[in-house]
Design goal:
Rossmann fold, four-stranded antiparallel β-sheet, 10 strands
């Protein structure tokens, strides 16, 4: 029996009078790929933000590897091995790709003084290896800001891998990416899961992408959990179909 690495139980979050999440419960299975879908405004990003510590929840419980994390700070959660990427990339545009990679290491270290000037040959080798893994090795000395948006997303993915995360949460990984690059990104996400053993938790609007990638999918609507199941079950769930058709 596979175990849950993230357990969300009866989580609620409001902003003023607006309920963003209401009594949401779900589990992210260790070693798997879990999808989170739902129409715009359904509360997906709010839930992601709560899991990684950006927005404290109003009620409920969030556990990571059996430990309650809902009261921890973002950096504390990151050090436990739970990282997320964003819809808009968080890279350092004035630095080259290698330097972006090297600056990513300290998430798992305590001292920020380690950020500069103490990188080992192993650090440089790992940076090169991961840039090669995402297809950016030839561009490793280019300024990150000169890369295309899709390449910047690949760089951000490599930066996250540099942290050696246990779980990587991805918010719209294919958004804004040239369709010709999407299959390559999906392949690398799958390989990060299978070869590096990283559990993935993915928000994705592209139904084809998430249906082909995830083992299990949760669907939110109006801040509540609408449905959960395998990709086949979700595709054929009338409540999910109605939620999406009603959203347009």
């Amino acid at each position: 029996m596979t175990s849950a690495i993230i357990e969300v139980a009866d989580v609620s979050k409001s902003y003023g009078g607006v309920v963003a999440n209401k009594n949401i419960s779900m589990q992210v299975v260790e070693g798997g790929i879990t999808g989170l879908i739902g129409p715009n405004g359904s509360g997906k990003t709010t839930l992601f933000n709560s899991v990684v510590g950006y927005h404290p929840i109003d009620s409920g419980s969030i556990r990571f590897q059996g430990r309650e994390i809902s009261k921890l700070q973002v950096q504390e959660i990151a050090r436990l091995g739970l990282l997320r990427t964003f819809q808009q990339t968080r890279i350092y545009g004035a630095m080259n790709c290698v330097d972006n990679m090297l600056i990513s290491i300290p998430h798992r270290k305590i001292a920020w003084s380690d950020m500069f000037g103490r990188n080992t040959k192993e650090d440089f080798d790992r940076a090169d290896h991961l840039l090669d893994f995402v297809g950016l090795y030839e561009k490793r000395f280019l300024r990150a800001g000169s890369l295309s948006f899709g390449q910047q997303k690949l760089l951000e993915f490599a930066m996250a891998l540099m942290n050696e995360p246990t779980v990587l949460m991805l918010d719209e990984p294919t958004a804004g990416i040239n369709p010709t690059l999407i299959n390559g990104l999906i392949d690398r996400l799958r390989r990060a899961n299978s070869e590096f053993g990283i559990t993935l938790f993915v928000i994705e609007h592209n139904m084809r992408v998430i249906m082909n990638m995830a083992d299990r999918i949760y669907c939110l609507a109006h801040g509540e959990l609408l449905a959960e199941g395998t990709p086949a079950e979700i595709q054929n769930d009338q409540r999910v179909i109605d939620a999406y058709l009603g959203a347009h």
